[in-house]
Write a structure and sequence with these properties.
The strands form 3 sheets. The protein has a 4-stranded parallel sheet, with helices on both faces. A 4-stranded parallel sheet has the order 8-7-9-10. It is globular and about 55 Å long. By secondary structure, the protein is of the alpha/beta class. The structure holds N~2~-(3-carboxypropanoyl)-L-ornithine and phosphoric acid mono(formamide)ester (CP). This is N-succinylornithine carbamoyltransferase.
Length: 319
């Protein structure tokens, strides 16, 4: 594995899940990457990704240095060939180039602007960090994907499913007050297609995910029908891909509550967090026995640890 930005960067995604689950049984290996340094660069807010990545890197005996570049760094210019006479003080060529001198691995969080689809889906910002740092790069959630989350999600499903047949997994859209990225659902779908599960996507019309992620995966526009017999339900809001970045519905009948749970196979309910209680998922679910969102969050440590371990030693990587 050279970088970790997508499931496509991983030779054996199932093997990486297994590795992360092994790490969970014995996470503290302080000699593994002693003396190595990871830079964790955040252009946007984070609670779990920031904390779990720091814990993961420390568990490996390495050091994590966090920079909230969106808040504390110089304003960055990403366009080539411009005269920098505006409010951008530093070009990504120098900023990432400098990071390349300090660190062994770089983690980057860069959300989409949700204005221009081509710009966001070109992953201009993440690719600039990869290109100009010269380092192995871990996506800490980019414009189109959140692979550390998806890896933790797969681990969590694996831990909660002991039968030999494939579980029915449903990802359902839920209402929200803000326009949110498609990164989490894109990524979940991309990873679940590699997993031994039967996946269904449900959302109101107009919320279809990009073909490159969801092409060929069954879509059911009737939420209740989609949820019938589900073993796992992943609840998430996202904004429209087709009418890019727009909110097309705020239909609260899609909020996940006991009514939805009742038609499932006593499903485990998942969310990447942060979650808006009472809007995206009702308290009766989040405070009840079916919710496994905290287990997902815990697994973020081990998914990050498996990935950083690979990238600290990437010359002899098999995954
Ligand atoms: N890292 C996990 C999710 C991050 C982001 N959620 C958010 O921005 C929620 C913000 C709010 O609820 O105001 C998303 O959907 O991609
Ligand atoms: N799930 C997740 O990535 O959370 P943060 O945005 O808080 O890092």
């Amino acid at each position: 594995m050279k970088n970790f930005t997508s499931v496509k960067d991983v030779k054996d995604p199932g093997g990486l899940v297994k590795r992360a689950l092994e790490i969970k049984t014995n996470p503290f290996t302080p000699d593994f990457a002693r003396g190595k340094r990871a830079g964790l660069i955040f252009l946007n807010p984070s609670l779990r990704t920031r904390l779990s990545s720091q814990v993961a890197v420390q568990n490996l005996g390495a050091e994590a240095i966090v920079l909230d570049i969106g808040k504390d760094g110089w304003a960055l210019e990403f366009e080539d060939g411009v005269k920098m006479n505006g409010n951008k003080a530093e070009h990504i060529k120098e900023a990432a180039g400098v990071m390349g001198q300090y660190f062994d691995v770089l983690g980057v969080r860069t959300f989409p602007e949700l204005k221009d689809r081509n710009t966001d889906y070109s992953e201009q910002l993440l690719n600039a960090f990869i290109r100009y740092s010269g380092l192995p790069v871990v996506s800490l959630e980019s414009a189109t994907r959140h692979p550390l989350q998806s890896l933790a999600d797969w681990m969590t499903i694996e831990e909660n499913w002991k039968k030999s047949e494939r579980p029915k997994v449903v990802i359902t859209w839920a209402p929200h007050v803000k326009a949110l990225p498609q990164a989490v659902p894109n990524s979940f779908v991309e990873w679940m297609r590699e997993a031994p599960v039967d996946l269904t996507i449900t959302h109101p019309e107009g919320y279809e995910l990009a073909e490159e992620f969801a092409g060929g995966v069954p879509v059911e526009y009737d939420q209740m029908k989609a949820l019938e017999g589900a073993d796992f339900v992943y609840v998430k809001n996202w904004s429209s891909y087709k009418q890019y970045g727009q909110i097309l519905s705020q239909d609260e009948s899609w909020s996940f509550g006991n009514e939805q749970l009742a038609v499932t196979n006593n499903a485990k309910v998942m969310h990447c967090l942060p979650v808006r209680r009472g809007l995206v998922i009702k308290d009766e679910i989040l405070d009840g026995p079916n919710a496994i969102h905290l287990q997902q969050a815990k697994n973020r440590v081990y998914s990050a640890q498996a990935v950083f371990a690979e990238l600290f030693t990437s010359s002899n990587s098999s995954l």
